[in-house]
Amino acid sequence: MPSRWVLSPSRFASIPMRVLMSGYFFDGDFHKGLHYLIPVLAFVCGVFVAEQVHMRYKNMKRVHWRQLVVLAEVILLFSVGLMPESANMAANALTSFACAMQVQTFRKVNGYTIASTMCIGNIRSEIESLSAYLKTHNHKLLDQTYRYLGIVLIFALGAGTGFKLAESLAYHTIWVCCLMLMVMFWIAGPAFQISSRKTTSAVGR
Question: For residues 74 and 176, is the Cβ–Cβ distance under 8 A?
Fold first, then answer.
C-alpha cells in the first residue's frame, strides 16, 4: 500500500486528523502540526469553492452546477496520480480539497442526508433509523434503514476494491476514481437537471 494513502486518510479534515494536529501543536512540535494543518485548510477552501460554484452557476441550463464540481474533482484527482511521492504534501492537499467539494455538493440521496466520503455518520443514521422503526414500526423508517445500509455496503466495497487495486496500481489507483466520476458526469447530468426542476417548482408553489 502506497505510503501516501496509508499516512493520509481520505477524510483529511476528520476527527483523527484534527486530533493529531492539535496534539502536535500543544506538544510544541509546530512543524508536524503544520503538516496536518495544510490538508485541513485545503478542506476548508474546498467547501468554500463548492459553495461559490453552487451560488454562481445554479441557474445554468446546459450543464448542471454539480457536474462542474465533478469535473473539477476529476482534474484534481488525476493530477494527484501524476505526482511523485516527494510531493505527498501537495497531493494530500489536493485530495482534501476535492474531498471537501464532494462532501459539500452531494449531501442527500432521495431526501436522506448522507456523507459521501465517510461511513461513520451513515452508520449512525442507519442504526438511528432502525431503532426508531423498532419502536414505531413506521415502514418509511425501515426504508431509510435499508438505504443507509446500502450506502455503507457500497462504501465498504469501494474501500476494499481500492485497497486491492493499490497493491498493483499504487498511486495510479486514484485514476479509477476519475473514471468513475466521468461516468457519473455523463450519466447523472439529466438526473441533476430533473432534481433542479423539481426543487424550483416546489419553491414556486
Answer: no
What count of other Cβ atoms lies within 10 Å of the Cβ of residue 195? 14
Rounded Cα distance between 51 and 105, Å, is 8
Predicted confidence band of residue 137 (pLDDT cuts 50, 70, 90): very high
* Whether the predicted pLDDT of 76 surpasses 90: yes
| 199's grid cell | 426543487
Helix (H, G, I), strand (E, B) or coil at 108: strand
Cell 484527482 belongs to which residue? Answer: 77
CB 131 within 8 A of CB 144: no
Is the confidence at residue 26, as pLDDT, over 70?
Answer: yes
Phi, psi of 3 (to 5 degrees): -60, -25
Which residue pairs, CB below 8 angstroms and at least 24 apart, start in 46-54?
Answer: 46/96, 46/97, 46/98, 46/99, 46/100, 46/101, 46/104, 47/100, 47/101, 47/103, 47/104, 49/97, 49/101, 50/100, 50/101, 50/104, 50/105, 51/104, 54/105
What are the grid coordinates assigned to 165, written together?
A: 487495486
C-alpha cell at 39: 490538508
pLDDT tens across 168-178, in order? 988 899 999 99
